[in-house]
């Protein structure tokens, strides 16, 4: 039996932006998820001691972590490392790649779109708030920084405690001028709720959404954050919406909707009944992250059609989502 596609997340951002800190937090808070983490060098990943179970010392070996995840040193051969993960007897829930500080994360993400064993879950790009605009003014760095921002499904503006309020406004405007409407999440110490990083960690509403559609303010999804006085209250930073659509959707119209989603939508995930171009009925899995969406054939779900979405507090377009998925209204209607 063929395995389901593995979700692939790429973490990008310039040197010192906080990629490794973010990755370590994800590993510590994986909550039972089995992650295959690919990095350029084991030494660059400062994994907490309690996570380390064994390291074979082989230059391209998988290092097993005590939480069930593995870490792989990829060196210059990312394709080979991905093949090892996909062919491994171990079963993983997702693959996470930490790109180098000067890499174009979108080129790496193309592997998730091209390999039939992978499904692109999103591109997360970190920005060092304290130096980003100064780096951008360096002509040797401008192209690299702009490519990274344009690749992102979510831009994590890190180290915001190091800049004043007026500087934050200018930074937001600059990021929007390059990255467009892609969501920005401001934080310190790379504190980001897992539900923003991966579709695997969408709130519990994803599993048993109510009949019809529902909009709610979720509980705090990052309890450990309160150990830090400066940590954001993640439960107050994003909203969820869930729905059980009662009708089938034309696949061409649905793909068009995914190309022009309403502003404020961060992630959308679920399974729907669809009508194929030849008129046949089918089930399709829908995935959307930041600016990229996908629709793929799926098996019939046990509990029927279901969707769940998240967005930053006060920005989730619940009326548009309900209008389209519950009532079948055209976008903007």
Give the termini separation.
43 Å
Please name the CATH topology of the largest domain: Rossmann fold
- Find the count of extended strands (DSSP E, 2+ residues): 15
Q: Strand order, biggest sheet?
A: 3-4-2-5-1-6-7-8
Order of helices and strands: EHEEEHEHEHHEHEHEEEHEEEEH
Summed up, the helix count is 9
CATH top-level class of the largest domain: Alpha Beta
By CATH, the architecture of the largest domain is named 3-Layer(aba) Sandwich
Which percent band covers the strand fraction?
A: 25-35%
- The CATH superfamily name of the largest domain is P-loop containing nucleotide triphosphate hydrolases
- Mean pLDDT level: 81
From the alpha-carbon coordinates, what is the Rg to the nearest angstrom?
20 Å
Instruction: Describe the sheet with the most strands.
Output: 8 strands, mixed
Shape: globular
Low-confidence stretches: 54-60, 204-211, 219-235
**Share of residues in helices:** 10-25%
């Amino acid at each position: 039996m063929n395995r389901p596609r593995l979700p692939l997340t790429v973490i990008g951002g310039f040197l010192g932006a906080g990629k490794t800190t973010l990755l370590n937090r994800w590993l510590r808070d994986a909550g039972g998820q089995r992650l295959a983490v690919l990095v350029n060098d084991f030494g660059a990943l400062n994994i907490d001691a309690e996570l380390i179970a064994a390291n074979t010392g082989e230059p391209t070996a998988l290092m097993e972590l005590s939480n069930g995840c593995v870490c792989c040193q990829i060196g210059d051969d990312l394709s080979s490392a991905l093949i090892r993960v996909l062919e491994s007897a171990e079963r993983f829930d997702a693959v996470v790649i930490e790109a180098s500080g000067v890499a174009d994360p979108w080129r790496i993400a193309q592997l998730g779109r091209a390999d039939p064993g992978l499904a692109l879950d999103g591109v997360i790009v970190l920005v060092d708030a304290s130096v980003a605009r100064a780096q951008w003014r360096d002509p040797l760095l401008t192209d690299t920084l702009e490519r990274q921002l344009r690749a992102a499904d979510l831009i994590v503006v890190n180290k915001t405690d190091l800049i004043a309020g007026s500087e934050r406004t200018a930074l937001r405007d600059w990021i929007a001028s390059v990255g467009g409407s892609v969501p920005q999440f401001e934080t310190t110490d790379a504190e980001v709720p897992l539900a923003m990083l991966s579709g695997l960690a969408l709130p519990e509403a994803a599993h048993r959404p109510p009949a019809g559609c529902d909009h709610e303010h979720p509980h705090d999804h990052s309890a450990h954050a309160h150990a830090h006085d400066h940590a954001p209250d993640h439960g107050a930073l994003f909203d969820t919406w869930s729905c059980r659509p009662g009708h089938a959707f034309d696949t061409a119209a649905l793909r068009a909707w995914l190309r022009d989603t309403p502003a404020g939508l961060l992630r959308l995930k679920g399974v729907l009944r669809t009508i194929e171009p030849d008129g046949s009925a089918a089930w399709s899995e829908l995935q959307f992250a930041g600016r990229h969406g996908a629709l793929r054939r799926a098996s019939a779900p046990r509990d029927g059609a279901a969707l769940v979405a998240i967005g930053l507090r006060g920005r989730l377009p619940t009326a548009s989502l309900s209008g389209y998925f519950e009532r079948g209204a055209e976008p903007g209607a």
